[in-house]
Specification:
The chain is mainly alpha-helical. Helix content is 51%, strand content 5%. Strands 1-2 form a two-stranded antiparallel sheet. Strands 3-4 form a two-stranded antiparallel ribbon. It is elongated, with a radius of gyration of 44 Å.
Amino acid sequence: MSETTTASSPEEKQTTFSVDYVRELRSENKSYRLKATELETALQQAQTASQKVAEDFEAQKAQINQAAQTAVTRAELKAVATKHGMVDLDGLKLLDLTKVKINDVGELEGADALFKQAKESKPWLFGVTNSTTTPQSPPQPAEVKTKTAKEFSDDEMRAFEREHGIRVTL
């Protein structure tokens, strides 16, 4: 059974196709449509995955930036705390650090007010300001007096012999 189809307008050159050939073309076209649909779905999935990765990256980047900002703020606060005479830097845990920020220039804002308030409310956290310069001269070293073996007592002599593993005779 070989049925044929012809062109619809009389001016066109008449072409005849067998029904089997038309079915074959339609089947081929169907496979191309299915392949295109699969590729579009894969593209959408890849775009969704890419967007998810970008969002995760931005979230991690924000976390890292926040952690770095916190570390820098803590380091700056420790320096200012030492300058204000805080005895133990663990005392920073007792203070409300939310009002202290680093501005765009990189300077610590609100730290002086925080420590002024802390000195009034928690004076035991503060003592004498430590400095690298000393106003007094350091004490002179004590004079070292050496003993000779003849000046050792019997107990000192035995301790010396035990310590050095030798026998001393005088």
